[in-house]
Amino acid sequence: MRRSMKRGFLFVTALMVITVPLAACSSSNKGAGTNVSGENSSEKTTTFSMMYSDSAAYPFNKEWPALKQMQTLKNVKLDVQAVPDKDYANKFKIVTSSGTLPDLISSVDHPSLMSVAETGVLLNINDYLDKLPNFQKKVKEYKIDDELENWETKDGKLYILPQMNEAALYNTAPVIRTDLLKKYGLQVPKTMDELYNVLKVFKEKDPASYPMANLIGANTLRSISGAAWGIDPSYNGFMYDSASNSFTYAYTSDNYKQYVKYLNKLITEKLADPELYTSSLDSWKQKMATGKSTFTYTWISELAQLNADGKKNVGPDFELTPLPPIAGPGGVKAASTTRIKDGLVIPASAAKKPYFDKLLAFVDWLYSDEGNVPFTWGIKDQTYVEVNGKKDFSDAVKNSSSIQKSLWDIGAANTNYAMLYPYDWFIKVLNNPLVGTLTEEAKAKNWFPAITKVPKLKAEQKEEENMLVTTVNDLFAKTHEQFVYNKVNIDTEWNNYVKDMDARGVTKLKKIYNDSLTK
């Protein structure tokens, strides 16, 4: 984004995709509200149509207090078309190809954006930076322009206004039963070899146990632990080497081979759950909270409930504790820390609408400190209080069973509207002081890996990429499971695996990605 910031930006807020045309922006006398932003409160309320990614965990509710407060503050009304999040990517394709787009579309991820970036359907943000001062300010303040560059096209155009985290958080970590370490006179494992030895002792002390469990699926385990093995973060399995200015494929590397052999050893020696890749989240929780498993990778913010359940099920000494990253061939590295997951887009056709300037002003306001409050902290003196200029959640929220659920109930902590997630807010939502402590240690000791570099591809290259990636990933996933579960011998079949991966598409993808690095 450094190139783009020199030319200008634009940002859009949108909610969800629909199969019928969304209502165009209109003016109405309904809902004219208090003006706290210098606008004329006597002006008619402006309505923006929005496409909204609807979560089953907190279904859209037009009566949410946070939504109503936002609409009152800006004298706007949002005509929301809510689409189930599982159908969202497909709906986005339908809407962007239909020629009839809502004013705002939220929760647009990177693949979806890049699939239409060069079609002319979306607004080029760079052309309107002068109308987006709050957005520019936060990009600079968050020091996130390097990561934002991944969302640009090769010619430096940006078609999305990103949802941004102020800082990386150390919230996923290796977690171990420290009460058992103390009981058996063991040290906290700092390397993968030390971890193996600890798991062996745990197994010897409780032969019916499977010491290591996994949240869910092979991809989750790799995404949390892969950086320590030097195989993550990646883009479709490819990692950028700045020294050679080239992309290499991680999943045929020697580091990946070591990773697979390590997991195979844990499975073979029954040190890892045989359902390592097939266990459900509920099953994983039950295994950890009953002591059947004693080591895992998970979110630190999940530990309070796991420990409470463990003390009931196992005993008062039960204690799962998060650890610093366990060192592997990739060094002491935490999980990847992408601070931009998705964002909002605006159709290019909006530039011709009479309310275009109001639309940009509204979106830019969401990047302001004032505009961000309703969808993070919520409602003053209800969900949060302010003392000496510092915000904190109210006692009612802090004493609830879930801070996040309390915010969801009023429409806050909503990824469709909140464009900024401040560090202090996130720490308080997670409600575990260890997240903050370990995050500060992570920054001081450089645990966070470098941001994945995303190749800049043309539309025709994207089509070829999609076909190749599907073939490569299918073979990779199948062979990975065969290696780990000893269905195929790693040592005797490794070279054949590498040749097959190259032939199926890795060689072609590598050329496409490396060619993209040329000017």
Low-pLDDT parts are 1-41
Task: Report how far the terminal alpha carbons are from each other.
Answer: 16 Å
Let me know the largest β-sheet: 7 strands, mixed
How much helicity do the residues have?
40-55%
Which percent band covers the strand fraction? 5-15%
What key attributes describe this structure?
globular; 14 strands; seven-stranded mixed β-sheet; 519 residues; disordered N terminus; single chain; alpha+beta
Structure characterization notes:
The protein has 519 residues and is of the alpha+beta class. It is 40% helix and 13% strand. The chain is built from 20 helices and 14 strands. The strands form 4 sheets. Strands 1, 2, 3, 4, 5, 11 and 14 form a 7-stranded mixed beta sheet that branches. Helix 19 (459-484) runs antiparallel to helix 20.
Could you give the topology of this structure?
Layout: H1 2-7, E1 26-28, E2 45-54, H2 65-74, E3 76-84, H3 88-98, E4 104-108, H4 110-116, H5 133-142, H6 145-148, E5 161-165, E6 172-177, H7 178-183, H8 192-205, H9 217-225, E7 238-241, E8 246-249, H10 254-268, H11 281-289, E9 295-299, H12 303-313, E10 320-322, E11 340-345, H13 356-365, H14 369-372, E12 384-387, E13 390-393, H15 395-398, H16 403-408, E14 420-421, H17 423-430, H18 433-445, H19 459-484, H20 490-515
Parallel strand pairs: 2-3, 2-4, 5-14
Antiparallel strand pairs: 1-2, 4-11, 5-11, 6-9, 6-10, 7-8, 12-13
Helix pairs in contact: 19-20
